# Entry
Amino acid sequence: MGIDRRTFIQLVTGGVVGSLFTPVIWKSLDDAAIWSQNWPWIPRLKYGQITEQATLSKFGPSPCSLTVKSVGGSPYVVKGNVENEMSKGGVDAISAGGAQLLYSPSRVNGPMKKVADGKYESISWEEAEKMLSEKLSAVKGQAGKLAIVSGDATGTSSEVLSAFAAGMGSSDCYLMPGDEQAAAVALDNMGGSGQIGYDLDNSDFVLFIGADAMNSWGSVVRNQRVYSEMRPTGEDLKSVYVYAGPFLNSTASSSDKWIPVAPGTGAIFSLGLAYHMLNSGSSASASDFADFKTLVMSRFTPDKVEKAIGVAPGVMAGLAKQLMSASAPLVISGSEFGQGAGAVDIIAATALNMLLGRVGEKGGMKLLADLPLAVDSAVSRTELSSRDFAGYLAAVASDKVKAPEVLLAYEANPVYAMPQADTMAAAIAKVPFLVSFSTWMDETASKADLIMPNPHSFERFDDAQTPYGVGVAMLSACAPVTEPIYNGKSTIDVVLGVASGLGIDLGYESAEAVLQAKAEKAGADWDSLVGGAAFVSDSTESGSLKFAASVLSKAVAMPKGGEIALAPYAKLNVGSSTVAIPPLNCVTISKFELQGKDLFVQINGVTAKKLNVSEGSKVKLTGTGGECVARVHINEGVMNDVIAAPLGFGHTAWDVFSRGKGDNISKILTVGTEPGTGMAVWTSSFVSIA
Amino acid sequence: MQQIEFDTKWTMVIDVDKCTGCGACMVSCQAENNIAPMEDGSNKLKTLTWLLVYELNNGKDFPERESAYLPRPCMQCGKPACVPVCPVVATTKDEEGGIVSQIYPRCIGCRYCMAACPYHARYFGWFDPIWPEGMEKALSPSTSTRPRGVVEKCNFCHSRLLDARARARAEDMDPNKLPDGWYKPACLEACPTGAISFGDSKNPEHKVHDLIKDKNAFRLLESLGMDPQVYYISRRDWVREQSDNHLPKDKH
# Structure
């Protein structure tokens, strides 16, 4: 029997059909697909017991209370701690990747000293502490030879540092710039004491002047949680929010109304509102009320205010009326990017709160009492907050003040994050011995002579006291949630040990003991704190405030006009002044802020036409102390004659996730001196464009 | 196309008016789902972000401009366009409350599903995932790692549903009738402004049951008839209009 064509086709067809019914082929294909995806370089998951533990993260400008989930002892994801008042269960965009930051390529894995050619050599902790002790021993007791800057405004660590500075005979212990500095100076000028706080939780009408509450002002995460509670989804709103500022930022876009106001003109806006309130008969019992009224009624009339800042009299009158008719109104002023505002902005906003009768009231502005000091010889929190590091560095830069022999930077990155960054970095470069206590290889660490890494937030004992902006005094703390990954050592422990060697008794032998003592003196239970609870105190300062009319009279000047104002803004997903772009956050950055290595600044169509630029144009922005390169994005959410520019880019250190991306807008901020208070300010920065 | 109805319908409701675009949800999603960090996150065509926050605006010039932020996870459509086009049945609308699943080892990377999805909610892994040295120790045990060449997407943190069901069984409760708040995706847990609500829209005891009936509730591209299980809420007319690709010349 031969095989003809018909038989051949039958055989082939039969074979094909038969193969469809056998599982062998399908199973083989499935196995092949699975096998082809199991490459050895793709990590396998590790399993183990899943645990949850409370901690604090301090990556952003305000602390965040978290619960860390760990598998087999390794943290992998975080969630907000709803039991804690400090952040009320919220998580910020840096802390959300806090577990992954434990393994950031930017971490410093042990103490290092600078050797030839700017390279670093690993050393032991004993050698590092010996080096530090020797340098400090040489300057002990000599004023002006030691300076300390801390990037932690809320931790008891700053108490230890200020007490150590005092023991060394130095009065140069500072905090990195923040809104709390302007508030402390303002309160001092108004004759008040304590810390300014705002009871957002109980206010039914909040006016933010400049202060970008959702990104950079105050306790951001807590602000967001309160905002959420006051605007329950699917229900009636419990509070009205109005934002006055130069840019349609997150706060403006989530507010009920945005009133465009140029950067650095918040005080004029406030006093323009005060005019309408005074005109309606508002008053306050303050010793200089008459002077204040005379000042406002003569210099901040509706026509003058409109000419200065462009806000129509009807808008001002309407807003004043809304404020006066609300049952619990609150006015909050601050910088649009969390730093550099003058005290007058706060004084002027406080004047509104005073005219509204909202100081010391529920839902109003509060004067919070400082919690007792843990270290007796420490500088009070109020005084530390009011010290002017930018002014000090500017004086060093211009040789008005001699550079210190030793500068200690704790959780701070002043080489990158100070205004007029190049000028300030040059001032720091004059310091013969720079020590970095940073967790990360940041710009300051990469210039330091000695690096003594502080452990990551999840690896150490720490605490946080009353972040600026919250409405009640509070304290939170944390214990390590994981074993140290690298060879870090708590800076408090280092300082206590070195101090002891130098004969300075700070009263404690370990970080844990200091923090426990702080909790005890505040009346809090340490075990509860490290378990995730917050201690809340309703203690407030008494006494009345004055308007500081004489300061307002000197410090508030009408803008000249005709210039292009710089409106920097800070967003937490891009990092903070202490943390660069975290690895997981790169994808969250808008294509209108960064593309490849190009930074984008934003202007509206009218300004673009005036400057003869268009979408994507490459421009050079020049300020007093430096210049930046950026591309233009046309955004109608920016007011006329203003350039909105994101902070947080242009890192020269760190890792591949942040280094070399965009430019550092801090370089083109201009540091000036506020008349009347003498503090350094940089919210009114103007730029030229080429 | 036939639509299978389940007794449970896991539903997400996002309040656009409360979203500040902070990005915490995106970062939390990356961590929970083992999405490797990307050096150049600005290449939006090749980045993996199961949840993406878009910035919207009303299209008007200064000073009339308004903006809003719109987080966009997978819509878990009732009639998903991605499912019927998958030649290897790697994606299905399974029985678990209507979550559209994606089986990575079965995916052959043809990307038909990406072409079919009108929400751009599916992502192709263009690169092998690379974690910086040591960061693999911070991988979540709940989501498998994926190689390059497969399509990925949000699954409402489906492993958390399994965890919630296990807890219900342990507490002698019906695992198919979870109490409100027992099952929370990572994005919801991280969102500081509480813009995200989540639950079973068929269960009257869950908040989302009522929220989806809110007068300001809407779904994206509703006219396509995909029946998404993600709802949005906004008081602003222009936000709601943009949700269905409303053009200026269209009548309201």
User: Anything to note?
Assistant: The mean pLDDT of chain A is 95. Chain A touches chain B through 86 residues (CB under 8 Å). DSSP finds 22 helices and 28 strands in chain A.
